[in-house]
């Protein structure tokens, strides 16, 4: 399944892979292996983005349309030679995130989900791509363990929500930051996000110190810290300059009435 904005989506994937440091992982596995695996993973991410685009732009969801998107996603797994049961297992969190998006249609909003659960689930696509990369190239574990990325994933997902808040006003995207502002106001939202980001920062520092900040672990800790500081600055800048008129025109706000 292809999209009329295929070039734009592929550009978005390049940005995602760079921002989430998947590009470095491709480089670490070496040029000999990089092209083929990257091509397969880009196609998988592309199919996931087609589902995302449908969920963000369509309010009453059509099951036959959803089935079509899932067929495309499953088809993108063919190069990895996995069993149907294993594919189901790998896609469990993608389905969980679809449920979060779908639940907005029955007024079950992401603000009712804990920060950790929501942003962990929201990072499911990146973690799936990274997991397939680690599975096909186990040598990556020598650079940095797969689970060491958990804090980087949490903070970059929060950054994405804040960065995209104005763009998402004219979509049905389950942007937790946006929905929190609509339902709780920007001051309470800022307070809650500062508290959670600070908690993640403390947990990340504790984890990396316990697991020896050396080699690529030191690099990942540096990246994580940079994103923490960047996201806090972005949070304050965004909540200090809220355009209430634009927020009043949010597509989701209309559905909350």
SSE blueprint and pairings:
Blueprint: H1 6-19, H2 22-29, H3 31-57, H4 63-75, H5 84-90, H6 92-103, H7 115-122, H8 124-136, H9 150-163, H10 176-184, H11 186-210, H12 215-240, H13 244-247, H14 251-256
What does this structure look like?
- It is a single chain.
- This protein has 257 residues and is mostly helical.
- 72% of the residues lie in helices and 0% in strands.
- The protein has 14 helices and no strands.
- The longest helix has 27 residues, at 31-57.
Q: Can you give me a brief rundown of this structure?
A:
The chain contains 14 helices and no strands. With 257 residues, the protein is an all-alpha fold. It is globular.
What tags apply to this protein structure?
257 residues; mainly alpha
Helix content: over 70%
Summing up helix and strand content along with how strands pair, one would put the structural category as mainly alpha
**Termini, distance in Å?**
35 Å
Instruction: Report the strand count.
Output: 0
Count of DSSP-assigned helices: 14
**Cα shape:** globular
Whole-angstrom Rg:
19 Å
In terms of DSSP E residues, the strand content is: under 5%
Summed over residues and divided by their number, the pLDDT gives a mean of: 93
What is the H-and-E element order? HHHHHHHHHHHHHH
Residue runs with pLDDT of under 50 for 5 or more positions: none
Question: Biggest β-sheet, characterized?
Answer: none
């Amino acid at each position: 399944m292809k999209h009329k904005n295929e070039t734009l989506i592929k550009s978005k994937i390049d940005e995602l892979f760079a921002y989430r440091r998947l590009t470095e992982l491709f480089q670490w596995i070496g040029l000999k292996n990089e092209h083929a695996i990257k091509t397969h993973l880009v196609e998988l991410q592309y199919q996931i983005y087609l589902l995302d685009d449908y969920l963000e732009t369509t309010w009453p969801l059509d099951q036959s349309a959803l089935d079509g998107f899932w067929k495309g996603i499953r088809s993108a797994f063919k190069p990895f030679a996995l069993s149907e049961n294993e594919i189901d297992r790998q896609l469990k969190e993608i389905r969980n995130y679809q449920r979060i998006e779908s639940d907005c249609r029955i007024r079950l909003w992401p603000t009712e989900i804990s920060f950790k659960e929501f942003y962990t689930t929201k990072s499911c696509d990146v973690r799936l791509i990274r997991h397939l990369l680690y599975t096909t190239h186990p040598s990556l574990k020598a650079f940095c363990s797969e689970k060491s990325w958990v804090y980087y994933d949490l903070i970059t997902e929060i950054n994405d929500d804040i960065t995209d808040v104005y763009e998402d006003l004219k979509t049905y995207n389950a942007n937790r930051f946006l929905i929190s502002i609509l339902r709780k106001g920007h001051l309470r939202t800022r307070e809650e996000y500062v508290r959670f980001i600070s908690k993640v920062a403390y947990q990340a520092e504790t984890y990396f110190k316990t697991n020896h900040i050396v080699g690529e672990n030191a690099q990942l800790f540096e990246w994580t810290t940079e994103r923490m500081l960047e996201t806090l600055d972005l949070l304050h800048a965004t909540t200090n300059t809220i355009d209430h008129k634009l927020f009043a025109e949010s597509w989701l706000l209309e559905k909350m009435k």
